Amino acid sequence: MKYLSILGSTGSIGKQTLEVVNHFKDRFKVVALGAGQNVSLLKQQIIKFKPEIACVLDKKNAQILKEGLTALNNLKILYGPEGYEICASYPKADIVLVAMLGISGLRPTLAALEANKTVALANKEALVTGGSLIKKAIKKKNQILPVDSEHSAIFQLLCEENKNYLKRIILTASGGPFWETDPSDLSNVTPEQAIKHPRWAMGAKISVDSATLMNKGLEIIEAMWLFEVGLDKIKILIHPQSIVHSLIELEDGVMLAHLGPADMRLAISYALNYPQRLSFPLKPLDLTKMPLTFFPPDFKRFPCLTLAFESAKIGGSMPVVLNAANEVAIKAFLKKQIKFTDIPLLIENIMKLHTPIKEVDLETIFTIDRQTREKAKEWIKKYT
Ligand SMILES: NC(=O)C1=CN([C@@H]2O[C@H](COP(=O)(O)OP(=O)(O)OC[C@H]3O[C@@H](n4cnc5c(N)ncnc54)[C@H](OP(=O)(O)O)[C@@H]3O)[C@@H](O)[C@H]2O)C=CC1
Ligand SMILES: CC(=O)[C@@H](O)[C@H](O)COP(=O)(O)O
Ligand SMILES: [Mn+2]
Question: Which residue intervals define the domain 1-deoxy-D-xylulose 5-phosphate reductoisomerase C-terminal in the entry (predicted)?
Answer without folding.
Answer: 144-227
